[in-house]
Specification:
Length: 715
């Protein structure tokens, strides 16, 4: 048997975290596996502040029977997906938009008739699923997905993010059995099962500076001062297991402000972007109480929790002496640092960091339960406003339930979010900030954790632009995508999407308050840009309108659904209720039999295998029976022992279980680097060295092992 690579950590054998058959599971791709996705290539063209993106997916069938491939993948939460093409045998098939139930009928009918077909669905604003049916043996089918989004700078820095993988979601608080979260994952560290690449052409219209990527190694070429071309360098390892994040500045940290307009056949669209030109720090900012709610579930185990500790230390050190704080750790349940909030001082900060260090990652991400607990926690001073700071990777499936809970408690606290990890659930992280009218921050490394902590300190020390209003004089604007303009962080611009009638003339006036000072800025519409190249403004307006109607609300009437469907059909946009379907009319599979194949997703970088399977532990529905115990021959701390036990069982459960069917006990010695250096077996009362077992076990090391130790395994 192939060593650990046959370990398929399959469903019934995953450290007591086993799932039922429809739940996510781990696998290791073998050479003969039929992996349908051959490649995923992303091409990005950024013109000014608008990114035009084409994602090209190539599906193949190396097997001997017709298949239907299913692949779940992420896109930007802001993406307006407006077009899809299918290419089969050099034939171009343009996908059509349908209401979702009708799309399913069209797709199913095509498959039954033996035709090749593809269907693209949206399950979340950042989670999509491609179904490609009747892929015949030897076939290669290409799907092109087109979307646009607007880039909004923060502190003068632009960022483009191309999400690469949907991290494993905890579904224990969700009553829906969503297929999109029941996909297989390759085990941590396993190489990509498909080719992945991304390239960006950046035409900023202004001099570009500081093009960097914290996520990937990149090569940058500058054809001229206002243009940059970015590709991935060859030294990237497994580039598809983390989000691609590109940052850049324009000369002098300028941003692209102003008015873009597009005159269509029936409608005219505009997007207005304006940066508040005030950055005043007030001396009379009132004291606040901060509750830090930190995710210590299975997906946060290891490196993400290390980043969280760095973040927490920097966040706490950035608070003022007049503030108070508390810490809540959550996974399957919550634990609280102090019965009541404590003062900001060195002793309390160190104690809080130790408290967090003792909270090892494990169990499911019970976010709703954690928030409910947080709202019930007592305050030290009822006259002091409370801010809740949620630190998580966001690997949950109850985003809208969380939005609703927070929206119903806005009078209790505002909620900030910090996303920790290489592929966080930005829908949750950004959405919580949206409904709470606050800010979200992302930290993929300890270095970034220190930087975003500074951003947070600046945010809470800087007055917002509040009570923002937009009005026009001599410019007939109407049907703004957002009903009201949210409060704006001083380093983030005001962005307005709308329609207009008549000539592009007159004025746009922005008013509001920054602290106690009145704010007013006037923009001449004639200074704006009307261009046929701004066609994407219509897609962006409709996507923003759909987001306001549907993205952040759980409960709404059928009229809202009907309005979203109408917007999707009119503007050719993928939504929660509309789907793209492409059908090739050639009949290739007359008997209609198909084998369903789920494309395995890469495990997110720095996320451990324990992230898959946590649901079963929380639901207490595991079918796994403990087949062996672990005795440590060394004196080690309780939390280290727990960490080692979990990591060992993740990596070795299948092999150990098999060998303990043959032998009475095993004794495994590790060196200080976590490598297996000796294995003994107990048979008929006699211990003997077994080099065969050692060869199988030594292929994987335990990162938690920091000194020589011996483990004894018993039935």
């Amino acid at each position: 048997m192939k060593p650990l690579y046959t370990l398929l950590l399959c469903i019934t054998c995953f450290i007591g975290f086993s799932q039922d058959g429809d739940s996510p599971y781990l696998l290791v791709a073998t050479e003969n596996a039929n992996i349908p996705l051959k490649s995923s290539i992303t091409e990005v063209n950024i013109a000014g502040t608008i990114a035009h993106v084409r994602v090209t997916q190539v599906y193949q069938n190396k097997g001997a029977e017709a298949i239907e491939a299913k692949y779940v993948f992420p896109l930007s939460t802001q993406a307006a997906v407006h077009k899809m093409h299918m290419i089969v045998d050099e034939r171009l098939v343009i996908a059509k938009i349908f209401e979702k139930q009708e799309a399913q009928k069209v797709y199913d009918s095509a498959l039954q008739e033996g035709k090749r077909a593809a269907k693209l669905d949206q399950h979340r604003p950042n989670v999509f699923q491609m179904n490609v049916g009747n892929i015949m043996p030897g076939d290669e089918i290409t799907l092109d997905i087109y979307y646009t989004e607007i880039l909004v700078p923060v502190n003068g820095e632009y960022q483009f993010v191309a999400p690469a993988v949907v991290g494993p979601r905890f579904t224990g608080e969700n009553t829906d059995n969503e297929e999109s979260f029941n996909m297989p994952y390759t085990a941590k560290g396993i190489a990509n099962t498909f080719n992945y690449d991304i390239s960006v052409r950046l035409n900023a219209g202004m001099i570009i500076q500081n093009v960097t990527s914290a996520s990937h190694h990149i090569a940058v070429d500058y054809p001229d001062a206002k243009t940059a071309e970015i590709i991935l360098s060859e030294e990237n390892k497994n580039p598809s297991n983390r989000d691609f994040i590109l940052n850049y500045n324009l000369r002098g940290n300028q941003i692209q402000t102003g008015l873009l307009m597009y005159e269509g056949e029936d409608e005219n669209f505009f997007t207005f972007q304006m940066e508040p030109n005030i950055n005043v720090v007030l001396d009379d900012i009132p004291a606040r109480e901060y509750l830090f709610i930190v995710d210590v579930s299975g997906s946060m185990n290891g490196y993400p929790l290390e980043v969280s500790r760095t973040l927490m230390r920097n966040l706490l050190c950035g608070l003022r002496m007049t503030d108070t704080f508390n810490v809540q750790l959550f996974a399957s349940s919550s634990t609280i640092f102090s019965p009541t909030p404590v003062e900001i001082n060195e002793q309390n900060i160190e104690a809080a960091i130790r408290f967090l260090s003792e909270g090892q990652g494990g169990g499911g991400t019970q976010l709703l339960s954690a928030l409910q607990t947080a709202y019930k926690l007592p305050r030290k001073d009822m006259s002091v406003a409370r801010s809740m700071v949620v630190i998580t990777d966001g690997y949950v499936s109850v985003e809208k339930e969380a939005f609703e809970l927070i929206a119903n408690n806005l009078d209790q606290a505002n909620v900030f979010t910090f996303g920790i990890g290489s592929s966080v659930n930005r829908y949750l992280i950004e959405g919580v900030a949206k409904v709470s009218n606050s800010e979200s921050f992302i930290a993929t490394t300890s270095e970034e954790a220190a930087e975003v902590a500074k951003d947070f300190a600046n945010y809470i020390a800087t007055p917002l632009l509040t009570r923002v209003k937009v009005e026009a004089r001599g410019f007939d604007m109407y049907d703004l995508a957002q009903k009201s303009i949210p409060d704006v962080f001083a380093a983030r611009p005001v962005v307005v999407h709308g329609k207009y009638r008549g000539k592009a003339e007159g004025k746009i006036i922005i008013t509001g308050y920054q602290g106690k000072k009145r704010f007013r800025e006037v923009y001449n519409v004639s200074d704006g840009s009307v261009s046929k190249t701004n066609r994407a403004l219509g897609y962006l307006w409709a996507r923003k309108k759909i987001a306001e109607l549907d993205d952040y609300k759980k409960l709404f009437n059928e009229d809202v659904k009907a309005e979203v469907v109408a917007l999707g059909l009119k503007y050719n946009l993928l939504t929660n209720y509309t789907s793209f379907v492409a059908v090739d009319e050639t009949i290739v599979n007359k008997d209609g039999t198909l084998k369903n194949v789920k494309q395995p997703l890469p495990m997110s970088e720095n996320v451990n295998n324990s992230a898959v399977g946590a649901e079963a532990e929380v639901k207490e529905s595991s079918k796994f029976k403990r087949t062996f115990t672990i005795d440590f021959d060394n004196e080690i701390e309780k939390n280290v022992k727990r960490q080692l036990t979990m990591e060992f069982k993740v990596m070795y459960s299948k092999l150990v279980t098999d060998y303990l069917k043959k032998y009475d006990s095993l004794r495994i010695k590790f060196n200080a680097e976590g490598k297996v250096v000796c294995v003994e077996k107990l048979e008929n009362g006699i211990w003997t060295i077994d080099e065969t077992i050692q060869l199988e076990l030594e292929k994987i090391s335990l990162k938690s092992v920091k000194k020589e130790m011996t483990l004894t395994l018993k039935k």
